[in-house]
Amino acid sequence: MVRTISLTELFLHGPLCLYTANLFLSQRGIKRDLFSLLSSFLQLIGTIFFVYDEYLNNFVNVCQAEGGCFDFGIKNVLLFWVLFVFINPLLMLLAFIHMYKAINNILAQERWKYENCAIENGYGGNYYDNFIQDEKPQQFGKKKQKKD
Description:
mainly alpha; 3 helices
């Protein structure tokens, strides 16, 4: 299971994250938010599968010490406590944060609710405030009537 997750992250999730990062740097819009949602969801699912598989197998891959997971040797502290216990919940939290922001951005774009959008421009204001127009839209294609 661990090899499958590792290969999936290497060949599928890695390029997807690079493409999503490129979208974040180059454009804004629903495409960027959908790819952010997809890559965050895959990160969350991969982390859950990885942690649950280790839990079912009594942490054989992450607890290398002879005394088990609660042996506080330097190898066990780094591998189990730092990389497994601390980093995995952090990855899950970051995935949830990105999913929350992406969903808010998608809903703001779909419903035209600019005040709920999580994207801020460089001045601290909402990015989509630039597109709000209070004036009536112009009507094109109507002929002007001549006055007699």
